[in-house]
Amino acid sequence: MPKKVDHEARRREIAEALWRIASTRGLDGAGLRDVAAEAGISLGRLQHYFRSKDDMLAFALRHINALADRRIRDRIEALGEEPTPRLVLRTCLVGMLPLDDRSRTGALVGAAYFVRAVHDADLRAEARNGIPHLRDFFTGQLRRAADRGELPPARATDDEAMLLISLVDGLSAYLLLEVHTPEQALRLLDLHLGQLFGGGAVSEGVRE
């Protein structure tokens, strides 16, 4: 009886082969033939799963975002039943930073996508897709903090949520460039959260 192939798992394996190439050579250096060789399959087999490089790139971007989202959700669930909004936000923000080898690879691939997406409307739309959802989640946490008296109501806005996202994007870039060490990036993140919420750094937060 022929062995049943998990096509979705094979597509994920191809996406991860693409990431390994993109993290060192950028997406322009990740041709279909290169990705097929990295994945240990023939070019024809790769084209069975993806009709074009654009299809492969879009799938890989969705997959890497899904993995990052799952990692952050797992960290939030590990906080217990009722973590404070500040701790939830910090956990999310720390999870978005490239603080270890795996998250650094993800950030390098994300940077490669960013460069390509600037000139590719379809990939740009795919890359932007998750931002409103993340903004709304952060805004919800800020409003919950305001309701609990932990944050001035005037700071519980979409704009404040976007500033948090922008802060992490900037810190991530400087981590990749080695302008900051992981410890310095975490200190700056805690400094901003302390200014936003009032008081010092979070003593119960997530540390890498």
Automatic annotation (TrEMBL):
Keyword entries, A-Z: DNA-binding, Repressor, Transcription, Transcription regulation
InterPro entries: BetI_C (IPR039538), Homeodomain-like_sf (IPR009057), HTH-type_TetR-like_transc_reg (IPR050109), HTH_TetR (IPR001647), Tet_transcr_reg_TetR-rel_C_sf (IPR036271)
Acyltransferase listed as a keyword: no
The keyword DNA-binding is assigned to this record: yes
A Pfam family recorded for this sequence: TetR_N
Species classification: Bacteria, Bacillati, Actinomycetota, Actinomycetes, Kitasatosporales
Residue ranges flagged as DNA-binding region: 31-50
Domain of life (superkingdom): Bacteria
GO MF entries: DNA-binding transcription factor activity; transcription cis-regulatory region binding
Chain ranges of the HTH tetR-type domain: 8-68
Protein name per UniProt: TetR/AcrR family transcriptional regulator
